[in-house]
User: What shape does this take?
Amino acid sequence: MKICFAVLFAFSLSAPAGAEDKKDTPPPRVVVEPVDGKPVTVKIGTAVRLRASGVAGSTFTPKVDGKGQLNAVKIVQQVDQTPVLGADTMEYELTALEKGRVTLEVEVKAPGGAIKKHRLEITVE
Assistant: This one.
Protein backbone atom coordinates (compact mmCIF):
# COMPACT_ATOMS: atom_id res chain seq x y z
CA MET A 1 0.00 0.00 0.00
CA LYS A 2 2.84 2.38 0.87
CA ILE A 3 4.41 1.66 -2.55
CA CYS A 4 1.17 2.63 -4.33
CA PHE A 5 1.02 5.97 -2.51
CA ALA A 6 4.72 6.60 -3.23
CA VAL A 7 4.19 5.93 -6.94
CA LEU A 8 1.07 8.14 -7.07
CA PHE A 9 2.92 10.90 -5.21
CA ALA A 10 5.86 10.68 -7.65
CA PHE A 11 3.48 10.93 -10.62
CA SER A 12 1.74 13.93 -9.11
CA LEU A 13 5.07 15.81 -8.96
CA SER A 14 5.98 15.10 -12.57
CA ALA A 15 4.95 17.41 -15.41
CA PRO A 16 1.75 16.58 -17.27
CA ALA A 17 2.14 14.30 -20.27
CA GLY A 18 3.32 16.20 -23.32
CA ALA A 19 4.29 19.36 -21.38
CA GLU A 20 7.92 19.06 -22.50
CA ASP A 21 6.84 18.78 -26.14
CA LYS A 22 4.82 22.02 -26.01
CA LYS A 23 7.95 24.07 -25.30
CA ASP A 24 9.68 22.80 -28.45
CA THR A 25 6.63 22.78 -30.72
CA PRO A 26 6.57 25.69 -33.16
CA PRO A 27 3.32 27.58 -33.65
CA PRO A 28 1.12 26.29 -36.46
CA ARG A 29 1.74 27.64 -39.96
CA VAL A 30 -1.02 29.74 -41.49
CA VAL A 31 -2.00 28.79 -45.04
CA VAL A 32 -4.70 30.76 -46.85
CA GLU A 33 -6.73 28.77 -49.37
CA PRO A 34 -9.11 30.98 -51.37
CA VAL A 35 -12.04 29.04 -52.79
CA ASP A 36 -13.81 31.82 -54.69
CA GLY A 37 -11.09 32.55 -57.27
CA LYS A 38 -10.76 36.19 -56.19
CA PRO A 39 -7.42 37.92 -55.45
CA VAL A 40 -6.15 37.61 -51.89
CA THR A 41 -4.37 40.15 -49.65
CA VAL A 42 -1.84 38.72 -47.18
CA LYS A 43 1.20 39.74 -45.14
CA ILE A 44 4.79 38.88 -46.03
CA GLY A 45 5.60 35.27 -45.17
CA THR A 46 2.00 33.98 -45.38
CA ALA A 47 1.51 30.97 -47.64
CA VAL A 48 -1.39 30.84 -50.06
CA ARG A 49 -2.54 27.51 -51.49
CA LEU A 50 -3.85 26.73 -54.97
CA ARG A 51 -5.18 23.30 -55.89
CA ALA A 52 -5.04 22.24 -59.51
CA SER A 53 -6.46 19.00 -60.84
CA GLY A 54 -6.72 17.20 -64.15
CA VAL A 55 -7.43 13.77 -65.59
CA ALA A 56 -4.95 10.98 -64.93
CA GLY A 57 -1.71 11.54 -66.81
CA SER A 58 -2.03 15.33 -66.94
CA THR A 59 1.09 17.51 -66.85
CA PHE A 60 1.21 20.51 -64.50
CA THR A 61 3.29 23.58 -65.36
CA PRO A 62 3.43 26.33 -62.69
CA LYS A 63 4.60 29.87 -63.44
CA VAL A 64 5.24 32.51 -60.76
CA ASP A 65 5.24 36.20 -61.63
CA GLY A 66 6.70 38.24 -58.76
CA LYS A 67 8.78 37.45 -55.67
CA GLY A 68 7.52 34.27 -54.05
CA GLN A 69 8.68 30.83 -52.98
CA LEU A 70 6.74 27.96 -54.54
CA ASN A 71 6.31 24.51 -52.99
CA ALA A 72 4.41 21.74 -54.75
CA VAL A 73 2.74 18.63 -53.34
CA LYS A 74 1.19 15.84 -55.39
CA ILE A 75 -1.92 14.37 -53.78
CA VAL A 76 -2.37 10.61 -54.19
CA GLN A 77 -5.63 9.21 -52.86
CA GLN A 78 -5.65 5.55 -51.83
CA VAL A 79 -8.19 2.92 -50.95
CA ASP A 80 -6.81 -0.22 -49.29
CA GLN A 81 -3.27 0.98 -50.15
CA THR A 82 -4.11 1.16 -53.87
CA PRO A 83 -4.04 4.51 -55.69
CA VAL A 84 -7.45 5.68 -56.92
CA LEU A 85 -7.59 6.06 -60.69
CA GLY A 86 -9.18 8.98 -62.47
CA ALA A 87 -7.64 12.30 -61.47
CA ASP A 88 -4.33 13.90 -60.59
CA THR A 89 -4.26 16.70 -58.02
CA MET A 90 -1.41 19.07 -57.21
CA GLU A 91 -1.27 21.57 -54.37
CA TYR A 92 0.90 24.63 -54.75
CA GLU A 93 1.82 26.81 -51.79
CA LEU A 94 3.12 30.24 -52.70
CA THR A 95 4.83 32.20 -49.93
CA ALA A 96 5.17 35.92 -50.59
CA LEU A 97 8.67 37.25 -49.93
CA GLU A 98 8.16 41.00 -50.35
CA LYS A 99 5.44 43.64 -50.70
CA GLY A 100 3.69 43.96 -54.03
CA ARG A 101 1.82 41.58 -56.29
CA VAL A 102 2.55 37.92 -56.91
CA THR A 103 0.72 35.77 -59.43
CA LEU A 104 0.73 31.99 -59.76
CA GLU A 105 -0.62 30.41 -62.91
CA VAL A 106 -0.75 26.64 -63.33
CA GLU A 107 -1.34 25.17 -66.76
CA VAL A 108 -2.81 21.67 -66.70
CA LYS A 109 -2.47 19.78 -69.96
CA ALA A 110 -4.52 16.60 -70.34
CA PRO A 111 -3.13 13.66 -72.33
CA GLY A 112 -5.66 14.44 -75.11
CA GLY A 113 -4.30 17.98 -75.46
CA ALA A 114 -6.99 19.95 -73.60
CA ILE A 115 -5.50 22.79 -71.53
CA LYS A 116 -6.98 24.21 -68.33
CA LYS A 117 -5.49 27.17 -66.44
CA HIS A 118 -5.69 27.87 -62.72
CA ARG A 119 -4.74 31.38 -61.55
CA LEU A 120 -4.03 32.87 -58.13
CA GLU A 121 -3.37 36.58 -57.54
CA ILE A 122 -1.86 37.78 -54.28
CA THR A 123 -1.38 41.31 -53.00
CA VAL A 124 1.27 41.44 -50.27
CA GLU A 125 1.18 44.13 -47.57
